[in-house]
Input
Amino acid sequence: VEIAILGTGSVGRALAGRLAGLGHGVTVGTRDPQATLARAAPGPMGAPPFRDWAAAHSAVRLATYAEAASGADLIVNATSGAATLAVLEAAGRDNLAGKVLLDISNALDTTRGFPPTLLMEGTDSLAERIQAAFPDARVVKSLNTLTAALMVEPGRLADGEHTVFVSGNDAEAKGVVSGLLKSFGHTDVIDLGDITTARGQEMWLALWLRLMTALQTPMFNLKIVR
Ligand SMILES: NC(=O)c1ccc[n+]([C@@H]2O[C@H](COP(=O)([O-])OP(=O)(O)OC[C@H]3O[C@@H](n4cnc5c(N)ncnc54)[C@H](OP(=O)(O)O)[C@@H]3O)[C@@H](O)[C@H]2O)c1
Output
């Protein structure tokens, strides 16, 4: 499968590296590939510049959002939640039509410091905004509930049996995403229901952020015991 990962941050890198390792064709999308490769300063949280990561992952291509999306069968949104709708517009409506769109973003408002708040909540979610804005895309919300390293390598926790979720209106699209999650090593994937169920996944961030502070690490996850 040809996969476009929109986003060059820690989530985009984790997904791109893991999917390429599993044998998928992967193109990472960014605003301006030249500018992204020219950046020499470390990113947020001291992440190495993208070019260093790219040099160690030569099978992964870098392109504009539109170029990446046009050649892909499946698209992953790993961009800043505040920028997501603009990024998807730049990726091109026609390039999203009919395709599975795995949305990992969190709609964080970071303008007032820590902890960030959510740009929408309660009776709304970013995943619903995406589905409404791009009705022909098959949006599946998943993986926004845990840190990037654990998204693609759940076994890094001593108890690797923890839980991830899928939300979306298209059962077949959720099946495709669940298959990818299982290929990463996830064993407990709960289908929450239609795209409105993404609200719960997105609002979990309020507790996730406080847990990260309390535990002094992002290396934890939910395990739904029943
Ligand atoms: N980090 C985690 O562990 C984690 C866990 C769960 C969910 N998430 C969510 O996953 C998403 C990605 O997180 P991240 O930490 O990897 O990276 P991030 O810093 O949140 O986002 C980086 C990406 O957003 C793009 N971007 C930022 N502002 C933009 C703008 N104004 N216009 C167009 N594009 C813009 C950047 O484009 P360029 O490439 O052009 O610079 C870059 O590709 C976020 O929504 C985050 O909340 C993150």
In short: The longest strand covers residues 25-30. The mean pLDDT is 97. The beta strands are 2-6, 25-30, 61-64, 74-77, 100-103, 108-109, 117-118, 138-141, 163-168, 188-193. The two ends are 35 Å apart (CA to CA).
